[in-house]
Each structure stands twice: as structure tokens, then as C-alpha cells.
Amino acid sequence: MVLKLYGMPVSTCTRRVATVLVEYKVPFEFVSIDVAKGEHKSAAYLQNQPFGQVPYIDDDGFILFESRAICRYIVDKYPAPAGTTPLVPSDIKGKALFEQAASIEYSDFEPYAYPAVREKVFKAMRNLPTDQAVYDSSIETLDAKLAGYEAILGKQKYLAGNEITLADLFHLPYATLLAKAGSDLMTTKGPNVTRWYNELCERPSWNAVKDGAKSFSSY
Amino acid sequence: MVLTLYGLAAPLGGTATVAMTLAEKGIPYTFVSVDLQHGEHKQPEFRKKQPFGLVPALDDDGFVLYESRAICRYLAEKYAGQGPTLIPTELKAKALFEQAAAVEFANFEPHARAAYNEGVLKPHFNLPIDASALNTCISKLSDNLDVYEVILGKQRFLAGDEFTLADLFHVAFGTTLAEAGCDLMTSKGPNVKRWWKEVTSRPAWLSVLNSGIKTTMCEDDAFKSGVSEP
């Protein structure tokens, strides 16, 4: 049975998973959840994702949620496409440096990028009042954190080393919304962050899904 | 050569998380206290190890690693042959572990940390507590723990029936909640309460609490008492 991805087409976390499925050329069926109507909070949905969040996958009866866990599962299960390096290294030190980079993403990037995007993009989309103070302090902290990124990316091409990994790709959904939120940090913080960010934005897998996740039956 | 752990000698946060993992696995280490009070972690010298100016950091014979969860994962993999298996290896079991680990940093830590910052750190620095902000993070935590109550009614630990790092990652911030005036870990429901008691009663955590975070060699009593049965 083909893998099913349940989510919202433009959801950040849904597109995070879709990107990796496309990277690894895994055929999948996309099933759209009507978040606007609260389908993700329905009793039926909560059976599969008890926190009432999108996305989740159903891989032939195996249910998994949390976008980064799903991405890791895909990389674990499927071989990297011919001519590419795996998105998670297998040698112990390479893997440790990947875990360090993956942890940087959810500790030093997401906690600040997400509130900024929520205030100025998501809330605006739903005509909710935005909290400028939250946006300002989030961007201020993100600015300081990106100094760490600038230092790391001056010594190596990607966050975990010289090969791209999931840790880099995980940044795309929120990083690409910062400009819409009103912050150009990703291209003004420093030359190294700019170089890295622009490269990520050119990734074919991201471009295939950035405007909305959809089914891919073949590659 | 023995591992060196750089961090804060207190039973909370990332340093304590790593110390608990070292104890679970029975790994001897040298502890070097970083003077956070005087901003040592923000100095250029320390930033060579940790470019974000945060603790902890690990030096394994010249291999430097930071981010507590990454350090714990590295230790679990490098010392897979001793102590409890903290990360499953089978494909689906590992995926369910990653799901639980993601839930910890997405649905638990942000609210637990916010509660700690508001309810414990602020009074410590004689700053007024924002009651509304504190209530908000406790309320979000409460909603998420409702789901933990369901999950932990079906299985012993968060990733399945075995203790894993996903459970361990909760300890060092979860135990500060009581100090912030939040008793959710014991009042939410019988399943969370049972799980929380089990996780915080592990010899590895008790050794962090009782013996503190310090250089620990094989012959130390703290080392022997900290190693859990696999």
C-alpha cells in the first residue's frame, strides 16, 4: 500500500515531510485535512494524532506523527537515491554532529522563527490581532542566534558538516516565511547564512512542494 | 581518555540531562564547572567550544559536541553495549522513539521551560512574576499532558514499554515545575503520575540529586549507585 501523508497543503510541518519524501523519491498519496473546519481535532483524527496536530503518516498501517520523526523514519527506511549522500550520516561522529545540528534547529531557530511567523503571517491570515512585542523580541533573539550559524557556516558548508542533512532541510518551512513576516535576517545576517539559505531555497525537492504538498506517484 | 563535561552543577537543564545519561550508562567523566554567573559561557574562549554561548558541552578526547540531547544520543550510541538501551534500533521502534523525542521538545519543553523562567528564575532575580504568562504556559502544558495521560495508559513509557531517552529528556526541566508552583506531573492523572514517579526514581537521577554533578570515576560510590539495571 502506498504511504499516505495526512496534512494541510501549505502547513509548514506538512511541507517539511513532503520535502523529504520527494528527496528520497518515495511515492506517496497526500490526503488533505480540513484544518479550517477543525478536522484535526475530530475524534477520528485524534485516534491517529492524539495532540490534534498535522501531519501524520500511515505507512501500510504504521502510524507516525511529528514531522521530524517522520522525516527520520523515511531516511532510516529508504536508501538515499543513487549518487546522493544519506540525509542522516551513519558513522558515529558524523551522526553525533548531525544530532547537534538537528538540536540547534529546534532549540536555537524554531522557538524564535515560529512565534515571529505566527504573529505576522498566521494570525494575519486569520484576521487575528498580532503582538508586535512578541515579534520584536523573537526576531531580536533570532538575530543573536544566527550569529552562531554565521560562525558555523564559515567553516563548513552545512550545519552538520560538508554534506546536506535533514538538519538543514528542517529549517526551510519557517525560514522561508520570515520575509513574509517582515524580517530579511536570512539574507542580511551575514554572507555565510545567506549562502547557505539561498542554496537550501534552490533545492528541487523543496521547490516541488513549497507552494503546497501534493501526491507523488512516480519520480 | 576520560570524557569532559562542561556545564552547570545544578539538577536542572541540559547539564543535568547529560549527567543523568552518563550515570545511566555508567560512564566515568571529568566535570568542569562553567561560571555562568560571571558570564564565562559568553566569552570567546568558551564560544570556541559552543558558538551559541550555552552549556553544556562535551569533549570526548578532542571530539567536541554540544546540545544536551545530541550529547545524550551520542553517549547512547557509543556506549550501546553497556547499561540500558536508551535508543531502540529496530526501524519501527526507533521511529516511535523519535516521535516521543519530538513530542518532548515540541509539546513539553517549551511550556515547562517557560514556567521555570517565569515562576522560578524571575523571583530568583527579584523580578515580578507575570501571573498571566505563567498561567498560559501551565495551561498549555496541562492540555498536552492530557494526551500523555492517554498514551501512558496504553504503554509503560513514552516510546513503548522500555525506558528511553525520550522519557529521560523530561526529567531535568520537569522536576523544576513544582518549584514554579505547578504540580501537574503528579496531579494530571494516575498514568502520568505513575510514569513520572518511575522516571524520577531511577538511580541515575537520584545520584544527580544526591551526589551532585561532579567528576565521577569508576570507583566512586556515586558511579556504582547511578547505574540502572538494563
UniProtKB/TrEMBL annotation, chain A:
SUPFAM superfamilies referenced in this protein's UniProt entry, alphabetically: GST C-terminal domain-like (SSF47616), Thioredoxin-like (SSF52833)
Catalytic activity: RX + glutathione = an S-substituted glutathione + a halide anion + H(+)
Record's GO cellular component terms: cytoplasm
Record's keyword terms, sorted: Transferase
One Pfam short name: GST_N
Domain GST C-terminal residue range list: 91-219
UniProt key word Transferase: yes
GO MF, any single term: glutathione binding
Biological process annotations from GO: glutathione metabolic process
Keyword Transferase applies: yes
Residue span, GST N-terminal domain: 1-82
Protein EC: 2.5.1.18
Domain of life of the organism encoding this protein: Eukaryota
Family: Belongs to the GST superfamily.
The protein's name in its UniProt record: glutathione transferase
Organism: Favolaschia claudopus
Taxonomic placement: Eukaryota, Fungi, Dikarya, Basidiomycota, Agaricomycotina
From TrEMBL, chain B:
Any GO BP: glutathione metabolic process
Transmembrane residue ranges: none
Source organism superkingdom: Eukaryota
Record-linked InterPro entries: Glutathione-S-Trfase_C-like (IPR010987), Glutathione-S-Trfase_C_sf (IPR036282), Glutathione_S-Trfase (IPR040079), Glutathione_S-Trfase_N (IPR004045), GST_C (IPR004046), Thioredoxin-like_sf (IPR036249)
Keyword terms: Transferase
Molecular function terms from GO: glutathione binding; glutathione transferase activity
Domain GST C-terminal: residue ranges: 90-230
EC main group: transferase
Cellular component per GO, a single term: cytoplasm
Catalytic activities: RX + glutathione = an S-substituted glutathione + a halide anion + H(+)
Keyword Ribosomal protein in annotation: no
Enzyme Commission code: 2.5.1.18
Residue ranges occupied by any GST N-terminal domain in the UniProt entry: 1-83
PANTHER family with a match to the protein in the record: GLUTATHIONE S-TRANSFERASE RHO
Protein name: glutathione transferase
